[in-house]
Amino acid sequence: MEAERVSLRFGGVRALTDVSFAVRGGEIFSIIGPNGAGKTSMVNCVSGRYRPTEGRILFDGQDVTRTGTSRRAALGIGRTFQNLALFGHMTVLDNIMVGRHHLLKSGLLRGMAYWLGGAQREELEHRREVEQIIDFLEIQHIRKATAGTLSYGLRKRVELARAIALRPKLILLDEPMAGMNLEEKEDMARFIIDLNEEWGMTVLMIEHDMGVVMDISHRIMVLDFGRRIADGTPEVVLADEHVRRAYLGEADEPVERVA
Fold first, then answer.
1. What are the φ and ψ backbone dihedral angles of 208, each rounded to 5 degrees?
2. Which residues of 130-145 are buried (b: 16+ CB within 10 A; e: fewer)?
3. DSSP readout, 114-157?
4. What percent of the chain has a predicted confidence (pLDDT) above 90?
5. N or C: the chain end with fewer CB closer than 10 Å?
6. Domain locations in the chain as residue ranges
7. Domain 1-76+168-259, what fold?
8. Among 206, 188, 176, which Cα is nearest to 259's?
9. pTM
């Protein structure tokens, strides 16, 4: 995925200014910066929720700048949200099944012939996929629970499950560990690494926990007031004088790592 000189304005407010970067297939790429730096605005441009005022977004070499969110999902872009977007009245299983919706192939005629095996077989295949995700994220014990009754940490895990259900090539994670305790963060970091290494998903992540970012990211981009001020490997970014002064504290202060 590539962003080429992306700018985004809301009236007279500039959320992003001339931001360019590329996410390579098979890596964990993180975007960091203070509140208001433009991180979520950038992810929204990638997902299709926002359309850049200037510049373009490429995915697998295809210009998707003017492509809608549903089409981008079909192309292989999935995401989670900073604010939970689950259906609170539905079960965990049903919430995850929603993530498989765009993969359903059964049309009207096949639906009418459900009991002859067409749509029924398809639904069983999708349920097998969902059960695999439930096992992977270790949420078997809440699969029939109503999503709105769960703890915050478990709801974050269910939202990740729904995004995984898309089977995306690129998954966008907007603060996946916000509001979690240390144990929950360690579990989420492990899941993200396994998604990348075992499931083959490329990850674009926004996260404020610098220990997690430095431990699991292959490369990092730093935004400040909507502009890119640094990018590179964790070691390169950590050594950048402007980044250390602005976001990581004094130069001699160590960064506590989680994973």
1. -90, -20
2. beebbebbebeebbee
3. GGGTHHHHHHHHHHHHHHHHHHHTT-GGGTTSBGGGS-HHHHHH
4. 68
5. C
6. 1-76+168-259, 89-167
7. Rossmann fold (3.40.50)
8. 188
9. 0.86
